[in-house]
């Protein structure tokens, strides 16, 4: 074994560049694989992971305190792995609140702290309620800027039935165990109407039925009718999937691409290393190394740098994946990240070296079979076949000879060329897909941002946090807003539940007037047109899907006591913010509408300061509560960022594949290069020759990779939108223009040229005397 | 027309100096491969450099060919100071003024014999057609016209060296450098290459031959330079056999 180790060490020292390249490729591939696998792992079940991270409840149960005591609930633990509670629970009727959030009945729970065995809350802002009169509200985490701009920052307190609770913190329960939490003492004052228990069950909890079954096991011994309501975690999971599902296939595609490209490039680099060593293999055999020892030498030679690269790559991948995963989880509304799981670490540390070993085994087994003489000649045998004919044809063209020689190199080793081509193709495919995805998301985001205005305004209700109400009528509010400097467009909406024939539940209809259509909602039409008559309506695709309706269908409604038939004339993408089913209808006056039922959206002229505009509203009428819409969609920013990071990583790995190919070609052709320089080839011509061959591959990779990337974009993007039950308008999918395509081809060339430049420059500096006399 | 008339038509030996080495020293680490070598070669001369292994023969050839740089001293070839040139300058100089033949021929395996030769002219910017025309003339003169489309792997050693000579002569070099030109050939092929070198010298081609082979030196060269430990141990005029 010592002879094998000595020979392997010598080979590593002698082939420093190749060893470095193998190590570097292993490092980047491992980093890509770790990021990709962590991503695939995270996206495979983000809700489940977040729930597990928080030890979220499998079932949130509410019991009647009149029928069951706390002691009975604490004692009932059949099939329960862990439980939290009993906690007092009450419905807190917030009259108007501020903005479209935190309205209506809120479930408040009296809880001493955010921790515990079950439902460990992410207290992401402020502190836990420690005294009566304090409340912590449940919401997904937001960063400082989003929070300051969004509606949450406008809720300093909640008031109901004469009790005012000051908001002292914000926490997030993945399982949605409550809308807010107060101290147990405060809960006693509020006179709880229910007792909450949070359960994590042992055994199968994969379906609603299974959870229900476990819950029945717990409650069997309790008095009849004690259980008022129970919510299995699947209810929240399905709601969450609708929000985040649109992004999962995007991320998944990148993960899969990362894995494929890593495998191909590792294969290219390692097989090249072994094949270029055939001559050396023959010499080892001639020295008396057994075939097994020779194979061992070569496997050691490639495994040592690969393992070193894999260790560093795993650490690098982990460091890179952590902030991305954290952002992704937060962006998906799951609060905390779960980090890079141990199995991904194991895959990085073991997977890439194992892959290297397996890849090296194929050419090494050939070396195993060859006799010493055959191995030596295989390492230096002249090439035959198509390559020669192509080289001859190229020699007769008008191309500069350094260029035609470079192009001819591609045909000298077709297998190596094919592998390099594959890595370039995948590199360009990735860049194309990433570019398309970013463009689609940007367009989608623009459509999203275009609708809804820059500032939203709702009059404060009488029991609102400020206690100040507006004395203005609806029309006066609109006139006030129109008169403020910076106002460009105003849309006014009034949401009303409307009974519809054939529908079991009333539909929330937004009656709109003003510039609503021009504020981006009309641009979001997927089918049909905007409403133009009192008996026409436009519906969101979500509503149409949910209610089984189509454009052209009619709905018969009870409107102000009159049975009215309306026609759905258009399908649009997005509803107005706040509660509602996504049905737009022409404006109607409702005499019973309260001032705070009206909702205003304002588009500002370019350059208007939002903060100053909102301040102007507050100054003009303290009874109006304005808030600014958040910036771009956080999750879209994350996906764009993620795709960019992975695209850069994969492009780097592809460039390393090219670097390896050129390094191997230089090694193979050292004698030829020396001869060419001896007959007058300048260093610049040497670089041109070597870079030309790879640039040509880059062009080919670009031309082929672009359609692949475009097809992937066309397939994946609608698929991902479909997962969220969203139909994307064609305009967000048509993202390609000729200039962009030309730039993408250029990206292939750029990856190839960057990869080729370093070994080409070293070839240009090759000492001719040493090469030519080194036979 | 004299034999090899297409190679070049220059007068015989003149007093014009083609190569001048002045106090050339070349160190590799602590070892001096050349130690103060001064040498002149006149136009039309055929000089053989001999000596035991490691005496600095190849290093001297590399200096003259601009393949390596001296640690000290001056190297002037065809009136140009090679020790002052950058890599590109040296490449252009070799392209236009030097021809080289090697022990192991150094032909490109994936080019035909004709394309190997034409390549030297194409690097100077000649069109493929012009370069091939010139290469064909050389093939005719060197007696290998029938092998022009054959790839190096299918040529005999002697044929490969003739192709290498044709390539070296392609741009009508002022100086032809030969590094053990018969070292890899059997005796018959070696004789043919020697005859070729003699013919070339007779029509005025300046030659610098590095060899271990006394027979080659005595047949082809008019002057013998013997090196030992990086220094010129002896110089002598030769009567060609």
TrEMBL record, chain A:
Species per Swiss-Prot/TrEMBL record: Actinoplanes campanulatus
Region (Disordered), start-end ranges: 453-474
Coiled-coil portions: none
Family: Belongs to the ABC-4 integral membrane protein family.
UniProt main location, coarse: membrane
Domain ABC3 transporter permease C-terminal: residue ranges: 253-370, 645-767
Statement: the UniProt record of this protein carries the keyword Transmembrane helix: yes
Regions crossing the membrane: 20-40, 246-275, 295-316, 342-362, 418-437, 645-667, 687-710, 739-760
Highest taxon in the source lineage: Bacteria
InterPro entries given in the database record: ABC3_permease_C, MacB_PCD, Macrolide_Exporter_MacB
Protein name as annotated: Putative ABC transport system permease protein
Domain MacB-like periplasmic core: 417-619
Compartment annotation: Cell membrane
């Amino acid at each position: 074994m010592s002879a094998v180790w000595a020979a392997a060490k010598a080979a590593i020292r002698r082939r420093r560049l190749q060893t470095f390249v193998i190590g570097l490729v292993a490092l980047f591939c491992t980093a890509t694989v770790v990021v990709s696998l962590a991503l695939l792992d995270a996206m495979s079940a983000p809700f489940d992971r977040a729930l597990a991270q928080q030890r979220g409840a499998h079932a949130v149960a509410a019991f009647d305190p009149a029928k069951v005591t706390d002691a009975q609930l604490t004692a009932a633990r059949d099939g329960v792995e862990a439980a939290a509670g009993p906690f007092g629970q009450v419905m807190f009727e917030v009259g108007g609140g501020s903005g479209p959030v935190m309205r209506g009945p809120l479930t408040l729970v009296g809880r001493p702290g955010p921790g515990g065995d079950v439902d460990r809350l992410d207290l992401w802002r402020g502190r836990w309620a420690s005294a009566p009169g304090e409340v912590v509200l449940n919401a997904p985490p937001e960063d400082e800027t989003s929070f300051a701009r969004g509606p949450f920052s406008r809720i300093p307190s909640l008031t109901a039935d004469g009790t005012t609770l000051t908001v002292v913190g914000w926490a997030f329960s993945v399982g949605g165990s409550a809308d807010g939490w107060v101290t147990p003492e405060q809960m006693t004052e509020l006179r709880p109407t229910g007792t909450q228990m949070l359960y994590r069950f042992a055994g199968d909890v994969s379906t609603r039925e299974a959870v229900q079954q476990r819950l029945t096991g717990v409650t069997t011994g309790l008095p009849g009718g004690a259980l008022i309501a129970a919510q299995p975690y699947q209810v929240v999971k399905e709601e969450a999937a609708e929000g985040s599902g649109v992004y999962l296939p995007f991320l998944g595609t990148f993960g899969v691409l990362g894995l494929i490209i890593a495998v191909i490039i590792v294969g290219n680099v390692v097989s090249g290393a072994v094949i270029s060593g055939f001559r050396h293999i023959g010499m080892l055999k001639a020295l008396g190394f057994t075939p097994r020892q020779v194979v061992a030498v070569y496997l050691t030679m490639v495994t040592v740098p690969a393992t070193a690269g894999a260790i560093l790559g795993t650490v690098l991948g982990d460091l890179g994946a952590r902030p991305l995963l954290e952002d992704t989880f937060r962006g998906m509304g799951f609060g905390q990240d779960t980090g890079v799981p141990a199995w991904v670490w194991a895959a990085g540390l073991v997977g890439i070296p194992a892959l290297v070993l397996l890849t090296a085994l194929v050419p090494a087994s050939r070396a195993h079979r060859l006799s010493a003489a055959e191995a030596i000649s295989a390492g230096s045998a002249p090439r035959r076949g198509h390559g020669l004919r192509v080289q001859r044809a190229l020699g007769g063209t008008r191309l500069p000879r350094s260029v035609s020689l470079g192009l001819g190199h591609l045909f000298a080793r077709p297998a190596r060329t094919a592998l390099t081509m594959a890595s370039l193709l995948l590199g360009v495919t990735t860049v194309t897909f990433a570019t398309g995805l970013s463009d689609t998301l940007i367009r989608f985001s623009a459509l999203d941002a275009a609708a809804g205005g820059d500032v939203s305004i709702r009059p404060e209700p009488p029991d609102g946090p400020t206690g100040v109400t507006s004395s203005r009528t609806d029309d006066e509010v609109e006139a006030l807003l129109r008169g403020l400097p910076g106002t460009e467009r105003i849309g006014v909406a009034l949401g009303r539940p409307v009974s519809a024939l054939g529908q079991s539940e009333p539909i929330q209809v937004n009656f709109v007037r003003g510039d609503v259509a021009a504020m981006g909602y009309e641009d979001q039409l997927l089918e049909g047109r905007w409403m133009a008559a009192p008996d026409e309506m436009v519906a969101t695709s979500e509503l149409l899907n949910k209610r089984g309706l189509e454009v052209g269908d009619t709905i018969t409604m009870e409107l102000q006591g009159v049975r009215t038939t309306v026609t759905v004339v258009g399908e649009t993408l997005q509803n107005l913010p706040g509660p509602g089913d996504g049905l737009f209808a022409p404006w109607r006056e409702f005499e019973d509408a309260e001032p705070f039922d009206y909702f205003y959206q304002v588009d500002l002229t370019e350059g208007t300061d939002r903060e100053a505009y909102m301040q102007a509203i507050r100054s003009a009428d303290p009874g109006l509560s304005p808030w600014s819409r958040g910036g771009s969609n956080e999750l879209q920013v994350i996906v764009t960022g993620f795709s960019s990071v992975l695209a850069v990583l994969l492009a780097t790995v592809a460039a390393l594949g090219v670097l390896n190919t050129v390094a191997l070609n230089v090694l193979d052709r050292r004698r030829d290069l020396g001869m060419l320089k001896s007959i007058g080839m300048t260093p610049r011509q040497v670089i041109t020759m070597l870079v030309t061959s790879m640039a040509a591959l880059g062009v080919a990779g670009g031309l082929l990779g672009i359609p692949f990337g475009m097809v992937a974009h066309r397939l994946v993007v609608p698929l991902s939108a479909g997962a969220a039950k969203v139909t994307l308008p064609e305009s967000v999918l048509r993202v390609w223009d000729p200039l962009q395509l030309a730039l993408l081809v250029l990206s292939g060339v750029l990856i190839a040229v960057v990869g080729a430049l370093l070994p080409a420059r070293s070839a240009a500096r090759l000492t001719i005397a040493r090469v030519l006399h080194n036979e | 027309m004299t034999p090899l008339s297409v190679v070049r038509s220059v007068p015989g030996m003149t007093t014009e100096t083609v190569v001048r080495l002045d106090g050339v020293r070349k160190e590799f680490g602590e070892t001096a491969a050349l130690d103060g070598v001064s040498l002149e070669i006149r136009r039309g001369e055929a000089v053989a450099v001999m000596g035991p292994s490691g005496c600095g023969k190849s290093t001297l050839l590399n200096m003259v060919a601009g393949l390596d740089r001296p640690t000290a001293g001056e190297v002037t070839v065809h009136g140009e100071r090679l020790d002052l040139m950058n890599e590109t300058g040296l490449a252009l100089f070799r392209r236009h003024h030097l021809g080289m033949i090697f022990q192991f021929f150094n032909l490109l395996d994936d080019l035909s014999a004709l394309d190997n030769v034409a390549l030297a002219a194409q690097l100077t910017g000649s069109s493929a057609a012009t370069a091939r025309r010139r290469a064909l003339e050389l093939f005719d003169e060197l007696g290998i016209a029938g092998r022009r489309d054959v790839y190096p792997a299918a040529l005999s050693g002697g044929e490969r060296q003739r192709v290498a000579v044709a390539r070296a002569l392609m741009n009508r070099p002022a100086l032809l450098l030969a590094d053990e030109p018969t070292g890899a050939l059997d005796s018959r092929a070696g004789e043919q290459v020697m005859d070729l070198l003699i013919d070339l010298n007779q029509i005025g081609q300046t030659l610098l031959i590095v060899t271990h082979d006394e027979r080659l030196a005595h047949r082809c060269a008019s002057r013998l330079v013997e090196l030992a430990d990086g220094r010129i141990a002896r110089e002598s005029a030769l009567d060609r056999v």
